[in-house]
Write a structure and sequence with these properties.
Blueprint: E1 5-8, H1 11-20, E2 23-29, H2 34-49, E3 54-59, H3 64-69, E4 77-82, E5 85-91, H4 95-105, H5 128-139, E6 144-148, H6 158-169, E7 175-178, H7 183-193, E8 200-203, E9 206-209, H8 211-220, H9 222-234, H10 237-245, E10 250-254, H11 264-276, E11 281-284, H12 289-299, E12 306-309, E13 312-315, H13 317-325, H14 329-343
Helix pairs in contact: 5-7, 6-8, 10-12, 11-13
Length: 344
């Protein structure tokens, strides 16, 4: 469900909102002000996380009585209320300050729980060191990484769609990660980058910014320069995929991990391999879009999982399952290993 921000057009409606909700965040804005548009997108993102807070949008010049009452003389301007009383304010387009302010005074509702429900036990939350390491791995997975809502082919918000379009306009090769698929990454990356909204673009492991920043860099020509500097690394991606293909004698490229497969086909291949007693390496293709697409091109095989022996494709789920059912999977792997060792 899309976040709800209520447009307030009268002082009476504003006062009614303060009475009916114990937690209120009000954005005083103007239609002609570009920074207000950017901060409104930030507010929408915050509204997704703080579902128990009432978010208001007040056009300062149209409802001047409210603006004058609270001393609002410039926009964007934010007021935070608890039980009808002002507890904090943020002046100007300061994303970090607004995010910190909301986080200080209000508590985000856990995903999948109704407002007011108790927070999950601390043991259920991924440890910060582990999460940080995972975020860094995702950020360093490719020279250009976009954390977005949805996928490049199916964006699930207009801002993500716009950044994908700009990257493609420059012919950039990039990894993407759907933050809607992993709440730990979604919340953790906000703290890691100190940026509360999505999409978020990283180039050479450095945070570039969100949709507005990327758009501005595109318009000034700086985005092309950043992508060009990263392109020399892109030329090594084919070599990186081939190195992964040969990182173990037997290598399984799958969705998820052998311990936690993320599709039924991958699970079936894992079970078949485990039954042979063969040692094998694995790679989660969901974690790296460059590897996912690059391997398809190299093996000329369009689906996952893919089982390789010494870098040579054995096949996908159907072939591996057929070999396993016939009792030939272990023999096939051993024969391929022996043949390639002799060739070497």
């Amino acid at each position: 469900m899309a976040p709800t921000i209520t447009n307030v057009s009268s002082e009476a409606a504003f006062d009614a909102a303060l009475v009916s909700s114990p937690q209120v965040a009000a954005h005083f804005w103007a239609s002609w002000c570009e920074p207000c548009k950017h901060m409104d997108s930030v507010l929408c993102e915050l509204a997704e996380d703080y579902t128990q807070v009432t978010f208001l949008r007040v056009e300062a010049e149209e409802v001047s009585d409210i603006a004058e009452r609270f001393g609002v003389s410039a926009v964007p301007y934010f007021l935070l209320f608890k039980n009808g009383k002002v507890v904090d304010k943020v002046e100007g387009a300061d994303v970090a300050a607004l995010t910190a302010c909301v986080g200080q005074h209000f508590r985000a509702a856990p995903t999948g729980q109704p407002p007011g429900a108790p927070a999950p036990a601390a043991s259920a939350v991924e440890g910060k060191p582990v999460l940080t390491a995972r975020l860094q791995q995702l950020i360093k997975a490719a020279p250009v990484v976009l954390f977005m809502k949805g996928t490049p082919d199916t964006p699930r918000c207009g801002f993500s769609q716009k950044v994908v379009g700009l990257l493609r306009q420059h012919g950039a090769h990039f990894n993407s990660f759907d933050i809607l698929s992993d709440e730990s990454v979604r919340q953790g990356l906000k703290q890691y980058s100190q940026w509360p909204t999505y999409p978020q673009l990283y180039i050479d492991s450095e945070f570039v910014g969100g949709c507005d920043v990327v758009t501005e860099l595109h318009e000034t020509g700086e985005l092309k320069d950043l992508l060009d500097r990263a392109s020399h690394v892109e030329n090594t991606e084919d070599a990186r995929v081939r190195k992964l293909m040969n990182s173990s004698d037997v290598m399984l490229f799958m969705k998820g991990t052998p311990q936690e497969p993320r599709c039924g086909f991958s699970r079936r291949v894992v079970e078949a391999l485990n039954a042979t007693g063969e040692l094998y390496g694995s790679f989660d293709i969901l974690s790296d879009e460059v590897v996912r697409q690059g391997l398809k091109a190299i093996t000329d095989w369009p689906t996952y999982p893919q089982l390789l022996v010494h870098g040579e494709l054995v096949g996908g789920c159907d072939i591996v399952t057929e070999l396993h059912t016939a009792g030939e999977l272990k023999t096939t792997i051993e024969e391929m290993k022996s043949r390639m060792q002799k060739a070497a």
